[in-house]
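sry for the spam today, last one i promise. struct tokens for design, 89 residues
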């Protein structure tokens, strides 16, 4: 939806779903991370916070009608996601 839609409502719904998914991921530590390793757990959560921050920027862009600039945020979100997967999978 985020890559192909220009519908404000659809975009906001998709971003809200992503935001909720990130929220729930904050409580689920990947198997690769020892839950007692505070540094790794904090690093994992920091990556999720970066993603959540970019989702909020994207929401603001959509609310302001700046759909073209949304693509930039999508690229940043993808980069954050890929970096997190490299670190924690």
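last one done:
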């Amino acid at each position: 939806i985020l890559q192909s839609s220009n519908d404000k409502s659809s975009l906001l719904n998709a971003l809200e779903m992503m935001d909720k998914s990130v929220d729930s991921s904050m409580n689920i530590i990947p198997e690769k991370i020892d839950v007692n390793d505070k540094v790794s757990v904090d690093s994992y959560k920091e990556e999720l916070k970066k993603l959540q921050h970019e989702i909020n920027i994207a929401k603001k862009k959509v609310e302001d009608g700046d759909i073209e600039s949304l693509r930039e945020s999508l690229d940043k979100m993808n980069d954050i996601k890929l970096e997190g997967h490299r670190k924690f999978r």
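The chain has a mean pLDDT of 92. ok im logging off now
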